Each structure stands twice: as structure tokens, then as C-alpha cells.
């Protein structure tokens, strides 16, 4: 199993805008071989931001890498710029994990 997570620091007061963007986006993940599941996670809050993480689970690292080079990946990210940039406090931070147990 392989996990991919992007951490997003979202300016306080813009959480619903961010959640709605993810709720309404077409991810195209269900058509991708090796994709298992997706969750958008809400984490701790500070005075400046709320932490979110997009979490996707894959059968293998290869399946994830294949997706990042696919037409489905390009289609899923085609509208990424439609969310107002000022809600983000910095770029997303990608974290990749391989299951060891």
C-alpha cells in the first residue's frame, strides 16, 4: 500500500471555500488503476490557518506514479487555479508513505 498526502494551510475564515472546492471537483480517481480511496482531512487550527490534508491510498507506489503522468491527473488538476489563491498560506506540502506493516 502507498499513501500520498498534500498538506494545505488555509487562511482562517476560508475553510468552507476550500472544502467546497474539493467537494465539487472532478478527481477522475475512480477511473485510475490502483486507486483505493480518498479523504479530505481537517486538522488543527492556529490563529492564522486551518490545516487540511488530501489523503489518497494506492495499491502501490507505481500506481500512484502512473496516475501523476496520466490524462486523468491532468484533467483532475485542470481547474486547480479556480480556487482563490489568497486562501492558501503557502504551497501544498506533498508527503509520500509506503506501508511497512
TrEMBL record:
PROSITE patterns referenced in this protein's UniProt entry, alphabetically: ABM (PS51725)
Domain ABM: 2-96
InterPro entries reported in the protein's UniProt record: ABM_dom, Dimeric_a/b-barrel, Heme-degrading_MO
Protein name: Heme-degrading oxygenase IsdG
